[in-house]
Design a protein that fits this description.
The protein is 0% helix and 45% strand. The chain has strands spanning 3-8, 17-22, 25-31, 36-40, 54-63, 66-77, 84-86, 123-129, 132-136. It is globular and about 45 Å long.
């Protein structure tokens, strides 16, 4: 695996992403405050650039008005359609095969019963050396 210096730490504002090209791949590098993360910079839904998405902590809910922020789990939301990807694993909780223009029965379910969708983006190891961000491809 090759390591690539992509920028200085201060070149990516906290909570923001930067698109870089490494070995022919478009990669989105995110500053998560105390650490950095990188994923393939293409949403598998319709190809939006994930580096322009918003980052946020993963949040679970047991029902209306009840929510819990999961410490350390940060997601990025696709800027086009809001698909969410875990920046640590690249996994998504979206499944387009279930989205249709018809009505469905609705029930409240325990968040522990959520199933991860089949889509994921590729992740890359990110470290810092001094004041530089280094991505391993």
């Amino acid at each position: 695996m090759a390591e690539h210096v992509v920028c200085r730490v201060e070149e990516i504002a906290e909570g923001k992403g930067l698109r870089v090209e490494l070995e022919g791949r478009a990669i989105a590098v995110f500053n998560l405050g105390e650490r950095f993360a990188a994923v393939a910079d293409r949403c598998p839904h319709e190809g939006a650039s994930l580096c322009h998405g918003r980052t946020a902590p993963l949040t679970e809910s047991q029902g209306p008005g009840d929510y819990r922020v999961i410490d350390g789990r940060i997601i990025v939301r696709c800027p086009w359609h809001g698909w969410e990807f875990d920046l640590a694993t690249g996994r998504s909780y979206c499944d387009p095969n279930r989205v249709r223009v018809r009505s469905f029965d609705v029930r409240v379910a325990d968040s522990a019963n959520l199933v991860e969708g089949p889509y994921r983006v590729e992740t890359f190891e990110v470290t810092t050396r001094g004041r530089y961000v280094v991505v391993t491809v």
